[in-house]
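User: My instructor asked us to take a sequence, write out its structure as C-alpha cells, and then describe one feature of it. I'm not sure where to start. Here is the sequence I was given:
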Amino acid sequence: IDRGANPEGLSTDQRGAGFAREFDGVADIGAFETQGQIRAPIAVPGLGRWTAASLAGLLALLAFWRQRLGGAPRRRAP
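Assistant: Let's start with the prediction itself. The C-alpha cells for your sequence are:
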C-alpha cells in the first residue's frame, strides 16, 4: 500500500468516478486504491482433538473404500 506510481496522471482507478487513483498523495500497487483503514486479522480456531481424529478416521475410511472399489486413481487425458 502506498508504494505505487501514477505515471499516466490518472485521476481515478479502473472503477471510474468516485474512486480516486491516489489516496493520501500516493498510488497503491494493484488494480485499485485502498481507501480506508486496514483491519486487524481475525483469529480462526483450530481443530480440536475430537474433530481432528474424526476427520482422520473419515479420510482413512474413504481411502480404504477407494482402494477396494476403484483401484488405482484414474489419470486424465491431456
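For the description part of your assignment, you could build on this observation: The mean pLDDT is 76. Try explaining in your own words what that tells you about the chain.
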